[in-house]
Amino acid sequence: MASSTPAARTRVPRSARRRASRRRNALVLGVLGTALVVGVIVLKPTVDDAIKEITLPLRHEDVIRQQARDKNLDPALVAAVIYRESKFRDVTSDAGAKGLMQILPGTAEFIAHRSGGTEFEVRDLADPQINISYGSWYLRYLLDRYDGNVVAAVAAYNAGHERVDEWGGKELTLDDIRFAETEVYTRDVLDKRGEYADKYRSELGL
Known about the structure:
Layout: H1 14-55, H2 61-70, H3 75-86, H4 105-115, H5 128-145, H6 150-159, H7 161-167, H8 180-199, H9 201-204
Helix pairs in contact: 2-5, 3-8, 5-6, 6-7, 6-8
């Protein structure tokens, strides 16, 4: 005859329970660790791109490549000037300089006259294609004026060629620049040129 009392439960030693708990915890931690590693691998490029976009933005790279090629310029230099002038935003300065490369209306008229842009209007400087085209033309003009001296050309882009002529012209070095603002500007452009060349080689066609 079957017993009417419930079967006695098998008692598991406390040490065995602790070992089982540790194995479960280790398994959970292993799974979480694997998920974290996979997440880092998957998300790292996205995070890196987001950081790069904030600290060193690049837009209109197709226009930069095309204009640099047409005017025999280093595309990283064009990108660096745009970064220093506007951080790739369409803005107008207090002095009236406009667009990505911050071109003054008077300078734009000079460029239009010299480059054959007979239909040019100042409002056209809001167009990235035209603005980068004009700014690149002016960079080429300044480089030619100073026999390829990048320091002199960049300083003149900021302070004007009249001042650069007074400071040393074709022989200008960073130490010759007499305006602190222009010296900082020129150093920043040269530094950013290196960063753009390093971080955006494929985008700039380098």
